[in-house]
Amino acid sequence: MTINDAVAIRIIQLLHSKGMTQYRLEQDSGIFHGAMDRILQGKNNTVSFTTIFRLARGFNMTVEEFMNDDIFRREDLELD
Predict the structure, then answer these.
(1) What is the pTM of this model?
(2) Mean pLDDT, rounded, for 42-66
(3) Which domains does the chain have, with CATH numbers?
(4) Rounded distance, CA 61 to CA 59, Å?
(5) Do the Cβ atoms of 28 and 14 come closer than 8 Å?
(6) If both were cysteines, with which of 1, 28, 70, 79 could 58 make a disulfide (CB 3.0 to 4.6 Å apart)?
(7) For residue 78, which phi and psi values (nearest 5 degrees)?
(8) How far does Cα 71 stand from its chain's mean position?
(9) pLDDT at 8
């Protein structure tokens, strides 16, 4: 699993748990629809720290809270 895959899974988890739509997240985070779609469809090779920061802000949480999930501690997480 790539970092992008893990970020996409985390986004989907948070959208469901917070009852948010993708559109609301895009508006609150400032991430364009096309970029969000590429992340969610696994078409990105990497996700920048700026994007992680914006996602966290869009979910009204800190970067630490966004990253505090077992998905980012998996043994099979590809770091290359």
Answers:
(1) 0.93
(2) 95
(3) 3-73 (1.10.260.40)
(4) 6
(5) no
(6) 28
(7) -80, 125
(8) 11
(9) 97
Q: Which residues pair with 2 in a beta bridge?
A: 78
Instruction: Render the chain in DSSP notation, one character per residue.
Output: -BHHHHHHHHHHHHHHHHT--HHHHHHHHT--HHHHHHHHTT--S---HHHHHHHHHHTTS-HHHHH-SGGGG-TT-B--
User: Would you say residue 46 has pLDDT above 90?
Assistant: no
Average the pLDDT over 25-46 and give the result: 94
* Residue that the structure tokens 């790539």 belong to: 2
The answer to whether 45 and 7 are in contact (CB under 8 A) is no
What percentage of the chain has pLDDT greater than the value 70?
99
